[in-house]
TraB/GumN family protein (Cerasicoccus arenae), 365 residues
Amino acid sequence: MRIYNVLTVIGLFFCMRLFGVIEPEPAMLWRVSDADSQIYLLGSVHLLRPTDYPLREIYAVAFDQVDGLAIEADVSQENAISNYVQENAFYSSGTISQDFSLSTITKLRTWFRQSGYQFSSQYQPWFLATLLLEVEVLSEGPFTASGVDVSFLEQANDRGLPVEYLESWQVALDYLTSMPPEIAEETVLEILNSGNQAINDLNFLIDQWSQSDLAAMEYYIDEEYNGGPQNPLSIAGRNLSWLSAVRDYLGDDRKFLIVVGAGHMVGEYGLPQLLENEGYKVERLPEEPWAELSNPQVDAQANILRTNIQGAMGRVCKIETSADLSDPNSWEVFDTFTFTDEQTTIEIPYSRTDDAMFVRGKIVE
């Protein structure tokens, strides 16, 4: 709870979050704005469990505010993608023995035989890691629900909203095929040695995302692709390449929700930090209801107190006033309204002869 003492004729101006409740936890959602436009950035995961739905209410509220959706890449071109995978799944020269140890290859041969797949020594490391991940973790684990991006894509299509993409599907797949052999072998061994552990790790990662634990997200973002911003296929490099598109959205009359993997939101090359560096206002939005009053001013001629109020989108807020803070029954409802994503100015009758006025924004369900 925060109390602002205003040493003017209005007495004590009262500002609080949920009146006696601690600060709300943030969501994996940012609002980015300049003088006359704004967008939303949502850090997502690309696969979920059925129990992870429904998503946080604040995400749906933000989506209701927008005119369009942008996601990482269009992966609906299945034939082109399948052909691309086939073209890049094999060595043009050489075999897996030049990148994987003999013991790993022996384990792989056993797995292929037991799983009913045909082993080829010309499979690329990234393909082997992806195949095992698909068969042993994704198909066997509880990750059967659509990811966040797919969920919003389906909703955008239902609403007839425009859908745009930050990069081509080929760039997204190049990111996958650029997996270093040592990382691919590490992934293969982890799955072969303990498929359940891989499932547990993924469950844990989704749990951390659900709790909006940005620090955990940053910790779990592997650096294998992150040779730094110089590498256009690294997370940092891709973020930098997306900036021009994000600037265009901020210059558009339409308001967009941009949904990308949570890994693109963390660190000094995360999208929120890059945009803040460029001078945009970047706010990480809270999940829980909140109301914040600010900038109280008295219009003596009109006998009005003006104050700004802003809060969690979609929440219903009561503006209450009191002349005696010591009396909990003295609060009276002055107005009730629903927050949008814009700051609102409210005007409350106020007489200079009053000794004090107390104002609060209180969230109601």
Q: What stands out?
A: The chain has two domains: 2-23+288-364, 26-83+121-286. The chain is about 35% helix and 25% strand. The CA atoms of residues 61 and 175 lie 32 Å apart.
